[in-house]
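One-letter codes give the sequence; the fold follows as tokens. Both lines appear below.
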Amino acid sequence: MTVRRPLALASACLGLLAGLLVSAAPAAADVKVGVAVPRTGPYVAVGEQVLRGVEAAARDANAKGGINGEPIVLDVQDDSCDSNKAVAVANHYVNSGVRLVVGHVCSNASLAASEVYAAHGIVMITAASVAAKLTDRGLPTIFRVSGRDDDQAKLSAAILAERFRDRKIAILSDLSPASRALAAATKDNLNRIGVNEAMSTAFQPSDADAAALADRLKGAGIDVVYYGGDAQEMGRLVRISAERGFRPQWFGTSAIATSDFAKVAGPASNGVLMTFYLDPSRKPEAQGVVNAFKTNGIEADGSMIYGYAAMQALVEAGNFAHSTDPAAIAKALRHERFDLVLGPVGFDAKGDITAQGYVLYVWRDGNFTPAKSN
């Protein structure tokens, strides 16, 4: 079912969250933008972050005339981070005349759907998908404002080698493609540096398996655990391990950059390290957006600002090109630089953003902040 969110031409700087968007059929002159996010499944929290950011950016844009003078109407679809559903969503956009898409969130969904978008000349820009393959294929209408998993793996390995070279390191993954890919890439980069892990294993997340794994890691004398799992799964493993008296240095990925991690892990989340994109909420360019969220009782954390940036990039490129045509917007994205909430940025030949990539964070009291360098 299509969820359309027409956007009122109201309020300066965001008009953020002043009320729920009211469903209505878009006028003929409106430009429809697809927003493909998980609204069911384990990644709902990240999907909500991205969606809130997109909605806010669209409200801001509509307050200034939309894209090339055309008001933006959002067509929000749930892909559940499932590849087959993502393809179905992509085909829905093809059939309904949507030519600009912000999405998807999970890399497997973006990889599957991007083939459809590229074949039909639809511009897709993701706020959260990190798989290197997404842009390495060189599809001309595919972009991202998030980082790449190969860059994340390199940073994770470098930190492990620098801080924990003489400690027993375990590298874990579950059965999800993203977890396996990040764990394998981090292991490979760590080994290239000359550091070998004490244990590398995959497991099926569940309460029983988490308990058994915690006992196994504790018995092996593991000091540091790198895990590429999502917020729910890592939160459960960290909590159960602490309950069983196993409290290593935990190290996660951008997949746990949501408050759900701390909610699941509880007090055991304190001190957990993770890699995530540069926090744009600290940048001067983002302060108006961040403050507008705060005014409405919302912390602009996780991928929220990146959702805003993805929508903002489409708007800026369309206004530069004086067009809502996807080919013109894709050309502008590839050849121009724009002042976004991420700062002045452009996109390279692959479609990757030129903004600074990953940095190290630490969890304290339910929030994550930049970690101090050694």
